[in-house]
Design a protein that fits this description.
The chain is of the alpha+beta class and 259 residues long. Helix content is 12%, strand content 24%. It is globular.
Amino acid sequence: MSRLTTAALSLILALVASAAVIGDTSSSGSGSGFPGRPWNSTLDPYLEPSLQSTGYNATTSEGRGPLVDSANLDELFFARTPTAQKDTRPTPAPTGHSSILTTVHITSEGDFALLLPKDGELISDAENDGSAYCTPTSDGTYCRRRFAAGLIRAAAVEKAGDGSWIQVTGCLDSSKYPFASSDDGGQFDVRFPNGAQCAFGGYGASFVEQVEPSANRFCLRCCAAANDQENCNSHQDRAGCPVAFPGKYDFPQLGVDCS
């Protein structure tokens, strides 16, 4: 066999071996890369192997698997979304006394109440001393304080068909209330302030309220039953209103949008 033939054969064998290594991902190990290809830090410098853990889903629009173009970081991060399971741990029952000062209600878009912090206080710090404020046109039964004119820009009320809950969602003008500067918001419920209640279900029944001044957004859902973690889940306090309580946050007829 000539030297040329021997060299050509060696080159072919080397190429075949290289292709076999590239095509074999079995040695990459669980979580070492996207399924179907080995981990390559040069291709994906921002995606560490530890991020390839279970609990995340990523698929391409063609359904070929989770191949992500690392040149587009928006695609990379938005394609990898957590698959969180709803936390249904019970909320401890309230032990504080009920008070009209911490009672919220929902009657209509123009008649409801929200718990709000003290002047300049972060909502996350107001969980022990939040107070109820009502819309200017609210019935006086549950009201001692009123919203300033213009605080509520738009609101929408929804009810469950089976009567298990009622909610009000909408947009506010945070400049109309002395919220703490750059406050991203927080949550109130039956334990914060302790003994707070919604008139819909009464003392001890589940309710959850979130106020997000930086997003000019609010939501309040009241449930008929105590510890209703299916409809009034109290463990989504960092999710934000549109996730915790989907509803209306866009009011095009009013030119108001806080979605």
